[in-house]
Design a protein that fits this description.
Protocatechuate 3,4-Dioxygenase, subunit A; 10 strands; four-stranded antiparallel sheet; 223 residues; mainly beta
Length: 223
């Protein structure tokens, strides 16, 4: 859980320094992220937590997002909500007929909301998403200001990085996704659209894994 004392601690026993603006400076764009469909697996309920794993198996991932306006100014206080599948391609809360298990109503894994700090930054401890037929690997997000939702979008990974992760652990059972970013009907061009996560091998609160970072460009006046 991220706090204002510059330490990020989540279940698993490892304490990491909280991400600062410096971690995001080399990522480039402050352009507005495109709106994309929320999809059928959205919940109205919010879960105020940074560790969203609920101890589900998967490749550990530390996800850092910095909320900016079009002028590159941080937007403190923005609430960032994310949700995605587990390693088997299953969303919580719905019977969704993924490629793996299918836990439905009453489950809440891999959903969470965090409030941006003074630098516009939120962090989540999660696992790398799995895949399901017809979609590239992705993470859903919404950004809320006050009582308004100002952005609904999705984030993507390079196909090559995904292939490396999916050769290991619980992902290997299901093979590679049947849909690339290029052939995905929602993704568009993630590299050009500012929806492509910058991924590197890194330390997470659960040990070695992936550090994934992105600048989220929003229009605070959007409704």
């Amino acid at each position: 859980m991220v706090d204002s004392a510059n330490a990020a601690t989540t279940t698993g026993g490892t304490t990491l320094s909280a991400l600062t603006a410096d971690a995001f400076e080399g990522l480039g764009t402050c352009s507005l992220m495109p709106d994309m469909t929320a999809g059928p697996f959205l919940l109205d309920e919010q879960f105020d937590r940074s560790d969203i794993t609920e101890d589900y198996a998967g490749h550990p991932m530390r996800l850092g997002l910095r909320v900016l306006d079009e002028s590159c100014a941080a937007v403190p206080g923005a609430k960032v909500e994310i949700w995605h599948t587990d390693a088997t391609g299953d969303y919580s809360a719905f019977a969704d007929s993924g490629v793996g298990k299918d836990e439905g109503e009453g489950t809440t894994f891999l959903r969470g909301t965090q409030t941006a700090d003074e630098n516009g930054i939120v962090e989540f401890m999660t696992v790398y998403p799995g895949w399901y037929p017809g979609r590239a690997v992705h993470i859903h997000l919404r950004v809320h200001l006050d009582e308004a939702t100002v952005l609904t979008s999705q984030m993507f990974f390079t196909d090559d990085y995904t292939a490396g992760v999916f050769a290991t652990g619980p992902y290997a059972e299901f093979g590679l996704p049947d849909t690339s970013n290029e052939s995905d009907g929602v993704a568009g061009d993630p590299g050009a659209d500012g929806t492509l996560l910058h991924t590197t091998a890194g330390e997470t609160s659960r040990g070695a894994g992936t550090l994934a970072l992105l600048n989220l460009g929003i229009d605070p006046s959007a409704r």
